[in-house]
Structures are given as C-alpha cells and as structure tokens.
Amino acid sequence: MISLDQVSKVFALDAGNFPALKPNDIRIKKGEFIAIMGPSGSGKSTLLQLIGGLDLPTSGQITVDGVRLNELNEKQRTLFRRTKVGFVFQNYQLLPMMTVAENIGLSMAANKAPKADIQARVQQLLKDVNLEGKQSHFPSQLSGGQQQRVAIARALAMKPRLILADEPTGNLDRQNGEGVLQLLSRLNKEEQITIVMVTHDRHAAKTADRIIMIRDGEVVQDGPDGGDWN
Questions:
Q1: How many CB atoms lie within 10 A of CB 122?
Q2: Please, what's the b/e burial string for 123-153 (b: 16 or more CB within 10 A of its CB; e: otherwise)?
Q3: How many secondary structure helices (H) and strands (E) does the chain include?
Q4: Which of 17, 22, 137, 156 could be cross-linked to 141 through a Cys-Cys bond (beta carbons 3.0 to 4.6 Å apart)?
C-alpha cells in the first residue's frame, strides 16, 4: 500500500538546513494499522505529511496505492488527497460555520457528487460513528470525542483505502480517546482500511498491528511493539 524508498526531507531555515527526516525505507501493507511514535521534533508528522502528499520529499520515492507522489504536480496531488486519503487531525479541523452533515459531506460536494448521494452517505457515516441525530448540530455543540468522530466520518466520505491520523486522541480524555481508538480499530478490521497513526501515547499505539519508532528523523525500531524505547 505504501512504499518509501530512501525518503528524506530537509527544510531550509534561516539558521541553515534542518534534516527533519533522514533517508528511510518503509513498507506498509494494505490493511495494516501502523502507529508512528517518537519524541517531539523527531519527524513523525513530517513523515505523515509526505505519505499524504501534503509535501514532497527532498530525496527518495514515495508510492501510495500504486501512485508515485513525486511524479504528481500540485493539482494532481490535491486530487490524490481528496480521493485516496482520509485525514484525521488532533484539533479536528471542522468548519465551525457548517453543520455536522455539511462538514462530513464537504469532500463529496467539492467533487460535485449528487445531493442525494451526499445525503445518503452522510446518514450512513453518522450511523457508523454512532452520531445519528446530530446532523444538524454545529461543532461547538458537540463534545471533543463527538467532534473527532465527525472528523473520522468526514475522512471516510470518499471511501478512501488509507486514513492518516495525526495525534487523533491528543485532545481527548481517556474515555473519549478510547472510543476513537476502538472506532479506528473497527474500521481497520472490518473494512480493511489501512491506517497510519502518529501518536505519543503508548496506550494508543498498542491498538496498532505495528509500531514504527522514529528518533532524530530516522527509523530506529519497527515491529509489533516497536521494541524498547525511552
């Protein structure tokens, strides 16, 4: 599903070049649930942005579901993100002036899907994330856990085979965070959606099949429990 071949990312800063990611090789199979862990500034979120086509690597090749991201222009990468990938962020990134239904159906509307199709998909997703009856609510009327479930439903609207989640439980208490993790795990197991999740939480990471540990921009451990890490 995902192949990174000697992928690196260097940012040009006033103080000089900063190697956010050193050359790394990573393979992720279809249907895997991967957790990426590491200290702050280790390159976790940079890696996720590269996989999602939000940025391009300085060197190396990234292939996602048969698509070589390096060979896409900006417009093509936007279409790739809109149709192939669902994004879930720590701060939800819901549009406050839109209802739950409008937030969930946003990507479908952007792709000019028929209204009836959008409504049907939104109702199905609300049922899937246990938010039936909330379609007319605004984000400010929901709890943090509910907002994150709306964000997950929005990520699923275009039926992507890949979800990229950046600290999806970071703003939630333990109970709501557990609910989000259970939802992601169910989507992974029942629908075979590949999930790559950045997290600093060991408990959250244990939901995954495999933990990739990153330190100073380099993969230092990769396995069922990530190996020993401090």
A1: 22
A2: eebbebbebeebbeebbeebebbbbbbbbbb
A3: 8, 10
A4: 137
Lookup: tokens for 195: 């999930």
What is the rounded average pLDDT for all residues in the chain?
A: 92
Distance CA 15, CA 33 (A): 37
The residue with tokens 């039926």 is: 159
CB 148 within 8 A of CB 92: yes
Which run of H or E residues covers position 187? helix 174-191
* Closest listed residue to residue 130, CA positions, set 182, 171, 81: 182
Residue 26 three-state SS: strand
Query: Are 103 and 95 contacting, i.e. CB atoms less than 8 angstroms apart?
Result: yes
Phi, psi at residue 18, to the nearest 5°? -115, 115
DSSP 98: S
What is the pTM (predicted TM-score) of this model?
Answer: 0.90
